[in-house]
Amino acid sequence: MKKLLSLVLAALFCLSACALAEETPVTVKVGVVGSTNEQWTDVLVPKLAEEGINIEIVTFSDYVMPNIALASGDIDLNAFQHYNFLENWNDENAETYGTRLVPIGETLIAPLSMYSDKYASVDEIQEGDTILVMNDVVNEARALNMLDTLGLVKLGDNLTSYATVADIVENPLNLNIVELDAAMVGSQMSDSSVAAGFMNGQYATQAGYKHEDAIAVEAFDPDNADQHGIVNIIAAREADAENPVYLRIAEAYQCDEVKEVFDTLYAGSFKAAW
Hints:
Layout: H1 2-23, E1 26-33, H2 38-49, E2 53-60, H3 65-72, E3 77-82, H4 83-97, E4 101-109, E5 113-115, E6 130-134, H5 137-149, E7 154-155, E8 168-170, E9 176-180, H6 182-188, E10 194-199, H7 201-206, E11 216-217, E12 231-237, H8 244-253, H9 256-266, E13 271-272
Helix pairs in contact: 1-8, 2-9
């Protein structure tokens, strides 16, 4: 009963805040990464403007700055990362910046995929080939776990979500695994020395790859609690976790129009998280 009452009160609070926003428009700066953000520009910006919530999109080119900008107060929200990435950032940076960042809504799942300009199948990968992986600790671990699953390397026991190249215990093909900033992988794929590289939907789309071009795709089971960490979220500063305008933005994200953007423009690269 108490839980029901709390939900009702929260809903009423949000409704009253949104009504106030219609009378007195508010501007909310939302940090995103890269250029593939049509769910914001084409759907959410006009949708929320009708409610008096003016979304100002702030675009970043990498995964480093959006959380720094949010923690520093330069933006109000960001939407680019998954739970595991956020948890790792808090562990390493919350004390430095004087705030934890918290999820206020789920957005999408962007399965990690392996692409190649050289091969049509993982089976074609050869001795000594170079494989590019993203160098942030969480997404590097996802790539390495995929390589392990594909039988290309073997990782040590007692793995965590933060496995690195140092955790490889067997590398039968002597693969050269190169760690790069996520934003750099796409631009290096055409290099003749590169056999394959890992990218998520965001950077793959920017680099001109389609979901069906992938030679391997990360498996995702929504019923597997261990994989919940790769669900992307909208993040806010801890002090703003209950801000009704911010919660309304998170709520508005989960709509059919955004799903349609995922299905039509991104065709498998992004999947709705709700």
